[in-house]
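The data are quoted verbatim here:
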Amino acid sequence: MSGRFLVEKDSRLNRPLLGRGDRVLVTGASGFLGSHLCRRLIECEVEVHAVSRTLEGAPSENLRWWRVDLEDCAATKNLFENVRPHVVFHLSGQAIGDPDICHVLPTFRSQLLTTVHVLTSSSEIGCRRIILTGSLTEPQAGQVDSPPSSPYAASKWASNAFGRMFHCIYQTPVVIVRPFMVYGPNQNPTKVIPYAIQSLMRGDQPKLTSGKWRADWIYVDDVIDGFIAAMSIPGVEGSTIDMGTGQLVSVEAMIRQIVEIMGVSIEPQFGALSSRFCEEVRTADIEHTRRVLGWQPKISIYEGIQRTIEWHRSSSPISAVMDVDCD
């Protein structure tokens, strides 16, 4: 099997990685990152094949939707044989950081099992590049004895180990991109930034943890720029690439920045919720990313939060009323 992959990969060494009209498959296309990525890919004039298990968006000239459960090996193989994508972005999977034991099996199936199915099908048809997504919650390189802090962290760690194994043994052209704390328009409303904005728009006090945890926050448009670079730059197969700013900012500082930009007098309730067990505090290695991809973040936290607030105000039916009540 590995010999076939080598021959197919070698036969394309002198071809451009991606050209106009080539096929790009995006799993998790209806999610936060997937929806932003699909819009950007359409602008790149490639043929986008968007995959979702439960939700389909509106098709367009360069966008086709597929409803597929990637936990089903046969269904995944059939999808890849029908689409025969040149590039794959695997973004799907349950992304819940809660360590509760009820998340173990759903996370294992939606993250690790689907990744193995995608890697196998991608390798069998000879894709030019497969982009997997890592997580800042994974144990760092050289800390193999450090326990993951949640089922999600463990599944990401194992998924990317499979990606590295496929690259090493089968020469599958895998690139692992590790976004840090991404925020921006259209994010799940249970995440801390959209939750705080929506609460303040309603005139409610956001109920939060202590807010002391610090993270490397990155605006979604910067991450999508990084994804496009990871898709396009030759010779980066086998790399693990961070997407962040390289700076730590506490949750409290982010929320207070939101309060200031929105111009409200509501005081968030820090300490109302318990903090999570063993949360990672780390920054992205953006120097490595700059060397490998020529990428660096462009959007400041102030501008990113401002854009996110504007999106929520324009998208919410209560925004006009709350703008008056809260100012």
Residues 1-15, 318-327 have pLDDT under 50 and may be disordered. Residues 259 and 274 are 22 Å apart (CA to CA). Residues 2-179 form a domain with the Rossmann fold fold (CATH 3.40.50.720).
